[in-house]
Amino acid sequence: MRDFAALFAALDGTTKTGAKLAALTAYFQSAPEPDRVWTIALLSGRRPKRSVTATELREWAAGAAGLPLWLFEESYAMVGDLAETIALILPAPLHEDEPPSLDQTIRALMALTGQSSEARREAILRVWDRLGQTERLLFNKLITGGFRMGVSQGLMTRALAQATGVDEAVLAHRLMGDWLPQHTAFADLVAEDTATGLGSRPYPFALAAPLEDGPETLGDPQDWRAEWKWDGIRGQLIQREGAFALWSRGEELITDRFPEFAPLADFLPRGTVIDGEVVAWGADRPLPFAELQKRIGRKTVPKRLLLDAPARLLAYDLLEDGGEDIRPLPYATRRARMEAMVAALPAGLPLGLSPDIAFAGWADLAAIRATARAAQAEGLMLKRATSPYFVGRKRGDWWKWKLDPWSVDAVMIYAQAGHGRRANLFTDFTFAVRQGNELVPFTKAYSGLTDAEFAEITRWVGKNTLERFGPVRRVKPELVFEIAFEGIQESPRHKSGIALRFPRMARWRRDKPVDEIDTIEGLRDLLNVARG
Hints:
By secondary structure, the chain is of the alpha+beta class. The protein folds into three domains: 143 residues, Orthogonal Bundle (DNA ligase i, domain 1), CATH 1.10.3260; 197 residues, D-amino Acid Aminotransferase, Chain A, domain 1 (2-Layer Sandwich), CATH 3.30.470.30; 126 residues, CATH 2.40.50.140. Helices cover 35% and strands 24% of the residues. The protein contains 19 helices and 22 strands. The chain starts with a helix and ends with a helix. GO terms for molecular function: DNA ligase (ATP) activity. Keywords: ATP-binding, Cell cycle, Cell division, DNA damage, DNA recombination, DNA repair, DNA replication, Ligase, Magnesium, Metal-binding, Nucleotide-binding. Its EC number is 6.5.1.1. It catalyses: ATP + (deoxyribonucleotide)n-3'-hydroxyl + 5'-phospho-(deoxyribonucleotide)m = (deoxyribonucleotide)n+m + AMP + diphosphate.
């Protein structure tokens, strides 16, 4: 843990990308190989399953520190991070020894799964009593799963490339898929040969940058291709010898959630990888995302859902053809090969092309974009015809030109403190709209404002609190905000009957009184528009 703690301190102590890259590179060159594997796993989102609950940690830490639980909870509310709170309140270690390695620490945590509460408590207390404060903090973060080091997976991959001399694109592909750190050797991750043993491993996804200034800045429209930006689940469909799989962009294997795709294994050529969007499909067009969302989180899909909202893959791009990695080829070439492959498939399969949108010029394309919601799309994708399929987000070749978000004006009725660096500010708010003379809560939001605005609101909350419910304050319904969101859907779980997608505070409406906020009827009108 000592090497890992030193890495954490180096990364936490700088905001400079070059300094973070140097610290990571040095670590990957010198740390024990099993620790390197776990560090790669942690920085790419592969965390061990939790073997201890947050409630147990609170109770054990308060007991070890000799504090009543209420005082621990008050401290936690101020600090905003459970792992940090525990590290701060624990007494100094009595037996500070040479700490175990990162690999040993995580394996010991994993071994606690299934043990009695008392056995797990004794094991955790024993480790706390042997670690310094920084190591304790990291140990606690490993337990809670709230592990963030301010490093993107791309930066980590670049550092790994510098440390090993292996091409960055090769490493990015090696780190995809369902490998398990406890069963993976460092040498396997950094091996040069990617031509064999691919199995169902997906490729790193190419991501588009948001187009904010309009397409006129992109030059000649003849250099570009356009298609809808669908509102579904981005995925890669893999058909290789002995492997058929569907991966989400978050590297989650979701094949079993879409049994409709199983017939594709019989007809897609071996050595095929398609990048596309999974959508719910009906009557020759996509259904609202809410229909697809009913499957998210389910391990098995009821027959009723399969009948009401069957899934379909709208193909964007062809990444592997006949076992050949064709990502370096121009987009126009990959698209032509994909069109030929899809045209050769039998009718009736749950796979189709994402339509190539023809346009005469940028003004023509802007008019087409305005119709996106009618097509159940979020806007347009623009791709340079000569672009390769790159790794991650590379500005210049792929752009997403989304529709302007919907927005409503609402009043804040509840406030709660944030976490981490915003633990001393009220940043998490509940908003309501009017229904006659009543206020109906309909969404929460916690982003979109500046730190200065959050600080001003925090001072206001302190003076205008009506009731307290633990960390939540009910406040006077006076502050009005414009709430922007990407979508709206019906939700029986909410009192308003409505749920928003990606709500955030677009601005503080200091100019608008509460009696001019929007109504629940207005939200239902938007819901009807969204349904098409």
